[in-house]
């Protein structure tokens, strides 16, 4: 039985400890407790305010001094104005000035930072960029072509673009006059080959970074000068800290106990009031204030990729996207805010603002540099052979004979064990790798991606049928790939097979037999009987010997994807053929635009292996995301993080290339842009009497689209309005336009039921007019400022209750209590706020007219100074018209 004391020991132990703790604390009088609670409360509020403040200041590039003053000054509940004749200096004004100056240091540090340049750059990558910069140019075809190297492991020479194509690192200013005369620059959107290559020529990436003022990764400009969360306010009342170190918790409590706590509490109250009262118009003003704070000039130069969205370009140039869109429209380029424009167009646009565009190639950042082979590193390697030829000429049977296994019959049984390539070991120990994919498809896929994987092509030609269409195609493909051809004249076991006939036919394709003085090897074979197969293999080895195929097996592995598939059990699996290096399980890699880490590796016999050498076909697993394509370059990287980085940049580049030519708003891309932009949309289905007028109407209507409102023609066809049209309109929320056509009775009935609007017209201008009005109805009104009066600050008073009071003389117009105010200093708008109090003498007034003195306290801005102009203005909403856009 458990005794009471035991129970206490078990259950009551923590309680006793707690009690002890409480007892250790000195006794506090009830009123003292209340005070402590208040102080704690104030402290909590204060921490919130401070963090909020630092966030605000971080987001603003400049005038932190204003904010500082504002925070120090409590919100004036009832502004009091002293007579202008009784100047009074306030002790706190000096404090505020001191704070302001400390913040000036901070704002300059913000100002020097470039938000565009904060791209992460590892030092290792930078080294690579520097190496890359020596390229004179690059092919402009798809991304995969760019990463492919030659089969012998050497990087193909980069094409040299004509000298003077573009100076290193920068673009020459665009001579508009010349272009207008049809001279220099190609038309918009036509990006001539070599342009981008020229852009990079000789321009070291790191140099570009430096020129662009890009801060190195991780070195945030904020870190240097930004005060810690305590800020100067803490310093004033709290104990001094060495080196501006973050205050300890005790310090915070101490400072909270000071008289400043009340001010913080008031400040907190004001802020919560502000945040609550954020109406739509307030948002507008916030944006405006932000814009004012960002009244930066257009930079003299910017760095962009090969294409850029209008929004990004506007941001880089410190301009409004709408302004750029308008300019582009003037140039005949219809583009939305998130639409891509190429670097040429961006250059022309930027040139309008005397801004030079430097094209930073994303491609450069996706290149995995490899170390060049030294002659002593190179060792002979296995030849890689592709069997090609016309349908039914015996390709599979030949491969089958080579492997001494009947693949045809296995395939008939549904067994597909092959991995796209396999290696044959001959009795003498020599090896040959055969690509086991249907020749043409493999070749086409490889060629499309710029891969030249095959060393030798074996062209199988039926000795009975002779040269057929696919034989010709195979010859062309092999010749384009500069792969030597060995002709295997098959089915020589058949009576009507003729070697001579085939030789004659092929001579027309510059495939002349050695016996005729040419250099092409012809081998008579019978895949059925196995006759001539040995000779064929010998011929392959002979050809390979002549080609002196060598590679470096000791470097990081490189090669190509031969085929890829999704294995139900193992996920993404790809057959890879290495051109150089040794591949090991656990290696990080990039294949095309995807990356991964080798999880498992299998040879062509399906056996699990740990490493693979050049020309040895292997199937790998371990892809982290997508499935690569046949012909994609495969490269091992130093680690997985780098592989991921490269893959992500390649994906971005791939996306950009895909989007590069999308400039005009089209039905194909509108869904994407709408989801991105949250645009308003007017959807139409057009039906007309003849196709010609339907097309004309469609084009005219699509031109009415603005960056805010998309006009989408879902379908445009000739014919009556039928039920299907109504159904489509109902599901997609569209309006039907009937031009010279009417709905069938059934369609009309359905439209009535579904509340689908059918508008009928006979004149094209009526349609345009109606739709224009509809679009204008959807346009949000334009908010326009109207200045109502101006006052000059002749004296500044500080009040402990209401903060700074501006003693003003109204110079023109009228200042009303409801006016919004621009604070203008040296012709620069430094503040945008409302009036908290307006007084004549000691009386609150609604307005003060020209020629009268008044006292103004501002809401949301307290850093008023002698000589500042207070510009009173009102916002008026103006209905937008399409014509005025
Ligand atoms: N008599 C004879 N028949 C052959 C020979 N080689 C292949 N054949 C037959 O020709 C037909 C087609 O052979 P495949 O090896 O499937 O031809 P293929 O070129 O691979 O055909 P596709 O895969 O459709 O392009 C089969 O019926 C084979 O048995 C040969 O040397 N002699």
TrEMBL record:
Keyword Protein biosynthesis appears in the UniProt entry: yes
Compartment list: Cytoplasm
Biased composition regions of type Low complexity, renumbered to the chain: 99-125, 238-249, 256-267
Record bears the keyword Glycoprotein: no
CDD domains xref list: IF2_eIF5B, IF2_mtIF2_II, mtIF2_IVc
Positions bound to GTP: 389-396, 436-440, 490-493
Region (Disordered): 1-281
Polar residues composition-biased segments: 71-86, 126-152, 223-236
GO cellular component: cytosol
Protein name, UniProt field: Translation initiation factor IF-2
Organism from which the protein derives: Entomospira culicis
Gene name linked to the record: infB
């Amino acid at each position: 039985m458990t005794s009471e004391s035991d129970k206490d020991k078990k259950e009551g132990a923590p309680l006793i400890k707690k009690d002890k703790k409480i007892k250790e604390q000195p006794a506090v009088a009830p009123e003292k407790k209340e005070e402590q609670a208040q102080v704690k409360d104030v402290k909590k509020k204060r921490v919130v305010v401070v963090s909020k403040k630092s966030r605000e200041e971080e987001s603003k590039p400049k005038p932190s001094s204003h904010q500082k003053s504002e925070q120090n000054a409590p919100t004036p509940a009832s502004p009091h104005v002293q007579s202008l004749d009784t100047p009074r200096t306030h002790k706190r004004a000096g404090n505020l000035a001191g704070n302001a100056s400390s913040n000036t240091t901070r704002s300059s540090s913000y100002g020097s930072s470039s938000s565009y340049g904060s791209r992460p750059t590892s030092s290792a990558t930078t080294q690579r960029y520097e190496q890359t910069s020596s390229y004179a140019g690059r092919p402009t075809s798809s991304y995969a072509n760019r990463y492919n190297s030659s089969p012998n492991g050497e990087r193909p020479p980069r094409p040299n673009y004509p000298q003077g194509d573009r100076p290193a690192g920068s673009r020459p200013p665009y001579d508009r006059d010349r272009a207008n005369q049809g001279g220099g620059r190609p038309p918009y959107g036509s990006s001539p080959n070599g342009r981008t290559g020229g852009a990079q020529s000789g321009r070291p990436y790191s140099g570009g970074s430096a020129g662009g003022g890009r801060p190195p990764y991780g070195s945030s400009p904020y870190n240097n000068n930004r005060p810690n969360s305590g800020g100067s306010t803490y310093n004033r009342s709290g104990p001094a800290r060495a080196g501006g170190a973050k205050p300890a918790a005790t310090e915070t409590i101490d400072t909270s106990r000071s008289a400043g706590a009340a001010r913080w509490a008031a400040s907190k109250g004001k802020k919560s009031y502000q945040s609550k009262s954020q109406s739509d118009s307030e948002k507008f003003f916030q944006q405006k204030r932000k814009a004012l704070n960002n009244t930066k000039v257009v930079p003299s130069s910017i760095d962009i990729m090969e294409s850029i969205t209008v929004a990004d370009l506007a941001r880089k140039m410190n301009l409004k996207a709408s302004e750029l869109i308008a300019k582009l429209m003037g140039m005949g380029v219809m583009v939305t805010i998130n639409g891509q424009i190429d670097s040429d167009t961006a250059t022309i646009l930027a040139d309008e603002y005397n801004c030079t565009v430097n094209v930073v190639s994303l491609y450069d950042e996706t290149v995995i540099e490899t170390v060049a082979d030294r002659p002593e590193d190179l060792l002979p390697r296995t030849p890689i052979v592709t069997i090609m030829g016309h349908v039914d000429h015996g390709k599979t049977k030949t491969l089958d004979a080579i492997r001494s296994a009947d693949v045809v019959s296995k395939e008939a049984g549904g067994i597909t064990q092959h991995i796209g390539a396999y290696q044959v070991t001959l009795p003498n120990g020599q090896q040959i790798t055969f690509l086991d994919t249907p020749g043409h498809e493999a070749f086409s896929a490889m060629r499309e991606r710029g891969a030249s994987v095959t060393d030798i092509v074996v062209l199988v030609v039926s000795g009975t049928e002779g040269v057929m269409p696919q034989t010709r195609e195979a010859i062309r493909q092999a010749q384009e790939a500069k792969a030597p051809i060995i002709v295997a004249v098959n089915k020589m076991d058949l009576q009507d097979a003729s070697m001579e006939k085939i030789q004659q036919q092929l001579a027309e394709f510059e495939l002349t037999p050695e016996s005729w003085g040419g250099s092409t090897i012809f081998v008579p074979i019978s895949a059925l009987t196995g006759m001539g197969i040995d000779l064929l293999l010998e011929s392959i080895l002979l050809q390979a010997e002549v080609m002196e195929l060598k590679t470096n097996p000791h470097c990081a592995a490189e090669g190509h994807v031969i085929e890829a598939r999704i294995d139900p059990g193992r996920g993404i699996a790809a057959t890879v053929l290495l051109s150089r290096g040794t591949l090991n399980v656990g290696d990080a890699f990039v294949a095309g635009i995807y990356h991964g880490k080798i999880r498992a590796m299998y040879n062509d016999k399906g056996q699990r292996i740990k490493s693979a050498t050049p020309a040895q076909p292997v199937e790998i697993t371990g892809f982290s995301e997508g499935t690569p394509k046949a012909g994609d370059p495969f490269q091992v990287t130093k680690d997985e993080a780098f592989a991921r980085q490269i893959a992500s940049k390649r994906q971005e580049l791939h996306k950009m290339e895909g989007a590069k030519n999308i400039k005009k708003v089209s039905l194909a891309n509108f869904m994407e842009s709408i989801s991105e932009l949250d645009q308003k949309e007017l959807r139409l289905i057009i039906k007309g009497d003849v196709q010609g007028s339907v097309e004309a109407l469609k084009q005219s209507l699509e031109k009415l689209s603005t960056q805010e409102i998309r006009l989408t023609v879902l379908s445009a066809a000739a014919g009556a309005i039928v039920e299907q049209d109504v159904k489509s309109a109902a599901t997609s929320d569209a309006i039907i336009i009937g031009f010279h056509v009417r709905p069938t009775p059934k369609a009309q009935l359905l439209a009535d039921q579904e509340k689908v609007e059918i508008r009928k017209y006979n004149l094209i201008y009526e349609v345009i007019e109606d739709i224009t009005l509809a679009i204008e109805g959807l346009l949000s009104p334009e908010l326009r400022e109207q200045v109502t009066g101006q006052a000059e600050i002749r004296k500044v008073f500080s009040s402990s209750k209401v903060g700074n009071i501006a003693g003003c003389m109204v110079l023109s117009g009228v200042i009303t209590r409801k006016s919004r105010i621009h604070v203008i200093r040296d012709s620069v708008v430094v503040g945008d706020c409302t009036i908290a109090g307006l007084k004549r003498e000691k009386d609150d007034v609604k307005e003060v007219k020209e020629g009268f003195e008044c006292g103004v306290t501002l809401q949301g801005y307290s850093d008023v100074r002698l000589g500042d102009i207070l510009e009173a203005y009102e916002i008026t909403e103006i209905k937008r018209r399409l014509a005025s856009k």
